[in-house]
Amino acid sequence: MSVVSDTIDWLTDPINRTGPDGFVNRTVEHLGYTAETIAIAAVIAIPIGLWIGHTGRFRSAAVAITGAFRALPTLGLLILIVLFLGIGLTPTLIALTVLAIPPLLAGAYSGLESVDRQTIDAARAMGMTEMQILRKVEVPLALPIIVGGLRSAVLQVVATATVAAYVGLGGLGRYLIDGQAISDYAQMAGGSVLVILLALVLDGLFAGLQGAATGRRPKKQPTTA
Amino acid sequence: MSWFLDNFDYVRELFVRHAWISVLSTLIGFAFALPVGWFANEHPRLRGASVFIVAILYTIPSIAMFILLPGLLGTPILSVSNVVVALAIYAAAVMVRSVTDAFGSVSPAVLDAASAAGFSRAQRVFRVELPLAGPVLLAGLRVVSVSTVSMLSVASLIGVSNLGSLFTDGFRRDFLTEIVVGIVAIVVLAVALDLLINLVGRLLMPWASAQQTPRARISLARGSRA
Amino acid sequence: MIEYRSIGKTFADGTEAVGDFSLVLPSRTTTVFVGSSGCGKTTLLRMVNRMVDPSKGQVLVDDVDIATRNKVELRRSIGYVMQHAGLLPHRKVIDNVATVLRLNGVDKKEARDRSYAVLETVGLDSSLATKYPSQLSGGQQQRVGVARGLVSDPNILLMDEPFGAVDPIVREELQAELLRLQRDLDKTIVFVTHDIDEAFLLGDQVVILKKGGEVAQVGSPADILAAPADDFVRSFVGIDKGSRTLHVEQRDGVDVVVDGTGKATGVLEAR
Q1: What angle do CA B63, A203, B38 make, to 5 degrees?
Q2: How many domains does chain A have?
Q3: CA A203 – CA B58 distance, rounded (Å)
Q4: Which of A38, A98, B162, C102 could hold B18 in an S-S bridge, CB 3.0 to 4.6 Å?
């Protein structure tokens, strides 16, 4: 199949690897957008999510807002912000942050909700302050779900950061947009493969992190009195 | 506003198109995920494998899927069928997991009681397991329908027309109104489908009133992608 | 000494858990609140460490109104043991026990040493110290819960149906263990249960509660049996069913003790 061999040729041609337009550089750009987005979204969403989960307040509002954010098409939002602010990194970061907030927020509050109420009651009865309960009991126990939210957010952002290229930025999306403009299927397919590989690597990384967060405690109960 | 009124027929046409592509993709994905998820729940060892495959499929960015599929399916890149297949793959990928969770959430004691009461294997699946898994299935379907509606708009980048075309067109013409109309239309469609699924759920499962179980809430954290 | 002064508690949803309740709990004794669910016994218990604040009235510990004390510090100075032990699932047994000490600023080494010592006091093998709570049996978890309540050597120990979730045989063991501990340690224990036998077994002072924290009778087990205040108490302690009214019958020259239902329960020996 020539499509496949063309794609392999594109991926293995050293010309495509180096330089400002090479995929090493594009991958770094792509990772940069992802990391910045996740950092901003986490700073916003995780404290709010923890607060909602800890206090149980505004939960239905949080569910409604995450639902609404989810329905917003990132592409449309991005273009809208670009028309307001002009071409640049900021619109992309804002649009991707809106995308990343729902899973992070939901991960944080549903993680805290999953913690046994009785454990929290016991911690309070022992004389932990609310902050200590959050730090020493709720967050450690909710960590697998919080990291799960983070994983989901990273995956979505890394996949969607391709749209940044549409509004003139770099990243791996460049190959998809440029390739489409000149009907260079090999370039588009090659770019796609790179995005998939990057997504898989990151997902694997976070799966490991999630496993580490879950795996410290044994789950089985070999009960003998 | 006047642009919207002038182009009402055009927007309506895109809306209808967007709606049927989303619904069709979601339904195909659901039809695929239901038996696979059920089977995965019955066979715990397959569970891990299915979750893994699904996770890999899910990492594929939608635009990459839209571009790569024609090469694999041999369909022209501008064909709608290739977009439907791509979206159905995502829908199935997300739902296999939630279907597995849904069947897993049915209490073994209830199943035991059903068998004891004389339900045959097949009767038990259709009359006990499926209805009891219903609320979680529904929650999964709602998440997927919203993300499918949103994801479809990306297909406009490769030239398949839908409400996302309003974004690409508006960007080319530097025309704000068109983009706002596109966003509003997509949100309206997503909300409408969500309400519709919820309504169907209420009609089919009056006992559950479609409330979210804790399990469903946690799987929501896994999210969707636009 | 713990003193309740005209305590009342109405929760935010309008339910009145306690109407008007006054009582003195003497130091170094065990007071048991016993009653059916909804009698407010747990609410009364949780007022002592301000897990619940009364809507009216005062709770005094050693003549100090605890409303004037910082909640968190108060809780750290009072031991608390609850049903299902309430252990932190992500910490090892030893760290669970050491938690309160660490909260009180005791350094890590000393906290560990004291925790090992108290594990021994409650009859747990030190090999269990590095296990996680889920790896222990229900009875062992409950012992860890007691150890955690005792570790900072508090004057007051609150126990909320601590043995309610373990099987009867383990429950008897734990009850015996608690009696032994109390002989050695001399704490002021507030104990909540719905089981009258447990109340009579453990309590120096037994408080039988009706709905809404209304006191049906207060007294030692012997006082209550000797003079039940009313039909409610008579029925609650089981006098009307006959299992508490014993008499002696002669069998081949031996005094056999028989209850009201005609069932032999033991033999009478000369003192």
Answers
A1: 85
A2: 1
A3: 10
A4: B162
CATH number at residue C127: 3.40.50.300
Record: contact A127-C170, CB cut-off 8 A: no
Residue B215 — very low, low, confident or very high, per pLDDT cuts 50/70/90? very low
- Residues from chain A that touch B157, judged by Cβ atoms under 8 A, are 75, 163, 166, 176-177, 180
Interchain CB distance below 8 Å, A75 and B226:
yes
Touch between chain A and chain C: 3 or more Cβ pairs under 8 Å = yes
SS (H, E, C) B190-206: HHHHHHHHHHHHHHHCC
C20 and C116 share a domain? yes
Provide the pLDDT confidence category of residue B58 given band limits of 50, 70 and 90. Answer: confident
pLDDT tens digits, residue range A86-111?
888 999 999 999 999 999 999 999 89
CA distance C208 to chain A (A): 25
According to DSSP, residue C29 is labeled S
Contact B59, B117 (CB under 8 A): no
Task: Tell me the average pLDDT of chain C.
Answer: 90
Overall number of domains in chain C = 2
Chain A residues lying within 8 Å of C161, measured CB to CB: none
CATH number at residue A43: 1.10.3720.10
Tokens of B39: 């089977």
Average pLDDT, chain B: 81
Can you list the domains of chain B with their CATH numbers?
Answer: 2-220 (1.10.3720.10)
Interface touch A217/C134, C-beta < 8 Å: yes
Give the tens place of pLDDT for each residue, C154-209: 999 999 999 888 888 989 999 999 999 999 889 999 999 999 999 999 999 999 99
